[in-house]
Amino acid sequence: IDQTRGWFYTLMVLSTALFDRPPFKNLICNGLVLASDGSKMSKRKKNYPDPLEIVGKYGADALRVYLINSPVVRGENLRFREEGVRDVLKDVLLPWYNAYRFFVQNVKIYECTNSKEFTLLDTKSVNIMDRWILSFTNSLLDFVRNEMSAYRLYAVVAPLTKYFDVLTNCYIRLNRKRMKGEDGPEDHAHSLLTLGKILLLIVRLMAPFTPFFCEHLWQNLRHISSSSSESVHFEMIPQPVNDLIDISVEKRVARMRAVIDLVRVLRERKGIPVKYPLKEMIVINREKQFLDDVLSLQNYIITEVNVRMLTVSHNKEKYGVYLKAEPNFRLLGSRLKNDQKKVVDYLKNQVTEKELEQFAEQGTLNILGYELSAEEVNLSYACRGVQATNERMEAHSDGQTIVIVDTTEDDDLKDEGFAREVVNRVQKLRKSYWVVDPTFIIKSESLQARLLPNDKAVAYCKVSPSTHRLAAVIKDYSEFIENATGTPVLLSSLPDDVKNAKIEVSCSSVKDAKIELHLICYRATSSAVTVHYGTRKHSILLAANDEVLTYTRLLYEIRSVFSLWSKSKLLLSLEALPTVTFISSKCNLLDLADKDIYVIAS
């Protein structure tokens, strides 16, 4: 307010009087940042957290995003809360980093599997989810550029921060198997290419908002791109590629996500975890195109909500579903005046199903001489009789679509649920397992590192009581569990010959049984070579998980470790300059174990 009165208004008066035109083309005005209780921040009262502590705890980027995604950028006041900065870190930066880390891990798997360096090729994927995320991202990019051009910063940041939830919880979540190479090499490559393009695009787009984090990611990602820029801040904000924007694909996936969300609500309502499969789900909608879109993506829906069968239908009467009219009292009141009560009463008590169906088709409804529009009356689905028909059927609607799920349990469904519980426990145990990894060297001391997805491990399991159904499930579903976790689960005690090894243990409950897991990793910790480049050195494994590095792969690892992507030629020597003993590309790399080699780059 003081800026408007004392500065902007004065400038406007002077410029108008002197030049007969405004003093500025655009004006950006920020609000005030207040203490959490709404009072002004005061050094005397110390009613605010130390800014340096906030930056040290959450990072400068988290603080920046919190402030530019607040009412301050709309010229309104903000009550500063430390929890808001923490939420940005939790909901934006960490999911974003996890997406990047997931990409890097699976690129390494791809390179090991195919024995070649991963690069971003200009190839088009026919996969619907790849097309969708590229379209969705370019649509977002187009929106951001338009809003920024109009100086509407307040409209930009919210969609950007929500984007990472879409990226991680929709695209990556539904395509994990593809990115891990489980659906074949072609799908493996296309999914990683798509994710790599998306990450590079988002890093460039978000650079003005999160400069430090984007710079960190750029330094690690730029070698797979065609850009020669040493910093992301030398890059321009990218232009959207209109050829990649497909609104129909975006609409299809949006409908799929809406159906998935409805099922999740039903599961939460009944307290049924996603690990436990459901027999059937029924999707009812009056639009044929909606149902066709759902069917085209049914494999993703079935996998995500863990249901055995998906059925779509127009026949709502079969499932006790009917149309319901909800009047818009504000619009009807302003137009109908005293007749509003009669019309509302008719809509609630006398309108027929046939009239509402005609309304759904034509968009208008004639009642008591008034023609009502879709804005004045909202149509939605409601459900009657489902509970009476079958106590195990549950229904939920978002107003346009209704989803009914069969929550009946049988032995097969329970057993699969138990197996998924075991998978969950093993995966958590793998994440918490640390090994001494000689590929991470700082000051010649090895660091502990987490298990990688392709690291081999075995889990020994004990179930109490031993007669519980869970024990039989572990045997019957052993192949399913191993495929899902990459870890055999043996229903036996820990052997004596491994009791001195590093073992990660977890004890938990599954329904009314207790399960105890002992995880042992078999990552190789020998056959490492120490690589020197200038004053820096790094240890690289020559063999791991029964696989020996190739000479080409060793050069790739060296380029990656020392960031030598710009060097056209690398030579390896057993001795430091000026003495040189070159290593042949045809040598047995295991002969180099525990030796020092020196890199000569040109």
CATH fold group of the domain at 83-245: Isoleucyl-tRNA Synthetase, Domain 1
The CATH superfamily of the domain at 83-245 is identified as Isoleucyl-tRNA Synthetase, Domain 1
Across the major sheet, the strand order is: 4-3-10-9
User: Which overall shape is indicated by the principal axes computed on the Cα atoms?
Assistant: globular
Assigned CATH class of the domain at 83-245: Mainly Alpha
Structural class: alpha+beta
Number of strands: 22
Offer a few descriptive terms.
602 residues; alpha+beta; Isoleucyl-tRNA Synthetase, Domain 1; Signal recognition particle alu RNA binding heterodimer, srp9/1; hypothetical protein PF0899 fold; 4-stranded mixed beta sheet; 20 helices; 45% helix; 20% strand; Ile-tRNA-ligase_type2; ATP binding; protein biosynthesis
